[in-house]
Amino acid sequence: MPISRRLALLEWAKEEDAYIIEDDYDGEFRYAGKPIPALQGLDSSDRVIYMGTFSKSLIPAIKLSYMILPRKLIDLFHQNNYYVQTVSRLHQHTLQLFIESGHWERHLNKTRNSYKRRYEALLKSIHQTFGENGKIYGASSGLHILLEPNNKMTEEELIDTAKMVGVKVYPTSVFYANPLGVQPAKVLLGFANLAEDEIDTGIKLLNNAWFNSTTMT
After folding, report:
1. Over the Cα atoms of the chain, what is R_g?
2. How many helices and strands in the chain, by DSSP H and E?
3. How far from 180 is each of 107, 171, 183, 185, CA to CA, in Å?
């Protein structure tokens, strides 16, 4: 979301006396251009509930997440005891020391560089293999992209034919209020857990599955 749109959304929340829930779970990973500030960082009216996690950038197993509440909601949150912390205090304290010592920032830079190489390998492979047959959305940040293959397949057909060649892709229709109206079909491709050579192999398998004459619709 561009900065102008973010500012307009914050102005709307202020005028409507509303709150915005900002889920910024992989906001640390941006691979081109200057980082775009989070809504919470731009908010001067205390209208943003900011949520994040260390699962993508550190260790998923400890399930350590966080939430930054507007000042008006903090007392209400504690009074109603909405949530009981289940993460080990030892893990929390260890992470605190990890951040304060500077190790977190160094780890994040190293991780970002690693993901950037995989991201660039994914885009290069798509461009070389699909050519004009694949349109990419959501580039330059995060740990996934949206891919729109130009083959007139439905989302279900894209997922099923990919599965037949051993590649898992994910639906996007689940994120729409009216999924039946989403055309043409797009799928979600993640790259965080793949080596660069695995990425290229996977894209070639998808190309064979989606653009082979026996699977075209």
Report:
1. 20
2. 7, 7
3. 42, 13, 8, 10
Question: pLDDT, tens digit, for every residue of 19-48?
Answer: 999 988 777 777 766 767 889 999 999 999
The residue extents of the domains of the chain are 3-105, 116-211
Residue 86 tokens read as 């289940």
Domain 116-211 grouped into CATH 3.90.1150.10: yes
Phi, psi of 147 (to 5 degrees): -125, 130
State the CATH class of domain 3-105: alpha beta
- Write down the pLDDT at residue 180: 66
Q: Which two tokens stand for residue 68?
A: 């930054």
Determine the Cα angle at 215 with ends 189 and 217, to 5°.
95
Q: Is it true that 3-105 and 116-211 share their CATH fold?
A: no
Of 78, 18, 11, the closest CA to residue 49 belongs to: 18
Q: What is the pTM of this model?
A: 0.76
Inter-residue contact 42 to 7 (CB < 8 Å): yes
**Cα 119 to Cα 201: distance, rounded to the nearest angstrom:** 14
43 vs 82, more confident: 43
DSSP type of residue 173? G
3-state secondary structure of 49: strand
Mean pLDDT of all residues in the chain? 87
